[in-house]
TrEMBL record:
UniProt organism field: Caerostris extrusa (Bark spider)
Encoding gene per record: AVEN_228150_1
Organism domain of life: Eukaryota
Signal peptide range in chain numbering: 1-17
Record keywords: Nucleotidyltransferase, RNA-directed DNA polymerase, Signal, Transferase
Protein name: Reverse transcriptase domain-containing protein
Length: 145
């Protein structure tokens, strides 16, 4: 199955519409590979976001419950919290760093890593505005969807 996805990737490399379809097809392969991280407790139990059944809203509920538990245990007059919006902190990703992280931290290797590497390199895009389509532009860094 992994070979088939890599082969399809090489045919459609560079087309945004096909990338979205192919990306969805690659999802089962990536999820299987990421099970390595879950099985070896590399992904923290309290990790929220990017984890099935653990959206970021659950993090807020978890925080609220911790505050209530602390107040029940030892009532204090004030609770102070600081929230940091990191939504723009990771607006670009260097493909090679991501590949290294997949290999070193999550144990993704061989064919799955090769497919990911192919997916992340030599990416291009075009812009359409009022019908004319632009020339190709190369992406060096991006958030891959």
């Amino acid at each position: 199955m992994a070979n088939r996805h890599c082969w399809i990737f090489s045919i459609f490399h560079g087309s945004l519409a096909e990338f979205q379809v192919i990306g969805k097809g690659l999802r089962p392969i990536l999820l299987d590979s990421l099970s390595f991280g879950r099985e070896r407790a590399l992904i923290p139990r309290k990790q929220y976001g990017f984890k099935k059944g653990h959206g970021t809203s659950y993090r807020i509920l978890y925080f609220g419950q911790r505050v209530r538990d602390a107040q029940d245990h030892k009532p204090i007059p004030h609770t102070i919290a600081a929230f940091l919006d990191m939504s723009k902190a990771f607006n670009t990703v260097l493909g090679q760093k991501l590949i290294t992280k997949f290999y070193d931290s999550f144990g993704i290797k061989e064919k799955a890593l090769s497919c990911l590497s192919d997916f992340l390199k030599d990416r291009i895009f075009k812009v359409m505005y009022k019908n004319p389509l632009s020339d190709k532009f190369s992406l060096k860094q991006s958030i891959h969807q």
